[in-house]
Design a protein that fits this description.
With 294 residues, the protein is mainly beta. It contains 4 helices and 20 strands. The strands form 5 sheets. It has a 7-stranded mixed sheet. A 5-stranded antiparallel sheet has the order 1-13-12-16-17, with no helix packed on it. The protein has a 4-stranded antiparallel sheet with strand order 14-15-19-18, with no helix packed on it.
Amino acid sequence: ILRDSPLPPSPEPVRLDSWKGNGLVRTSTGRLLYEHPSNAERTEWRAFQCSGTVVTEPVTGRSIILTASHCAYERRRKSFARNVLFIPSHEVPSEDIRTFGCAQSPFGCWAPNLAVVPDGYANGGKALPLSFEYSFYVVSDEDAYIGPNILPTDALDEQVGSMPIKFDSPITGPSNEGSFTYGVGYPNGFDPTLMYCSRTLSNYSTSNLFLKTCGLSVGVSGGPLLQNYDADTQSGEIVSVFSFMVRTNSSDGLAGPDLDTDHAKCAFDFAQSVSLENIPESDGDAGVVVAGCE
């Protein structure tokens, strides 16, 4: 997929702007719609929005979406999300109409089969385990598409493309070449427009990364942080996902987990091999908490 419209500034710090390219960043990144329970009995549910990205993997028969863990699992209720829809390249059909309809999006909607969540997030104690704020949705090649069009393939990743996860150490620091990073997602205040921020990536802690002065907001959780941007394919390598905001007197921006960990790679490997048979149909149970990856 080659560019056919202007590229974002590169490399130039941007606090907030719309993504203007039409390559893999746009097609493989999408909005996630889902519901979490609001009571322990799972009789009441609330709708939420996040972002996610189709990621590159070698297996057939499925596609994998990377997002933030809180977009897939509700820790207090010990529940996976229900009624999940992934809308790649979600766009506004006109300036006056904002819609979440599958028919209005160029690639329709896709319904994941289950979520894969690291045990370090699901059972990580009272404090939010930010270093485990990554999870995966697995989408079967069969019966996942929802939309009006007849597609040339039933595989999500073949239809929209994918971007690779970089499990090696990300480059951080203003003096290091290659540390310039794009953060991309769908903030609620700009429904449904793909937005981005960009600047040098830094370390927020030993296990989390930080894009300072990033102006993206609620709804971009799960959106990718990209390095090694390729202008021809408009693609990059995913080094993290947005998972939490930082708003203090001394600093503001968005942060996410460093994926250069054994447990992140282990959870990703599990998502590639987990069975898509006999998935529980009860609300809140369509997923697997992956233990033994820590």
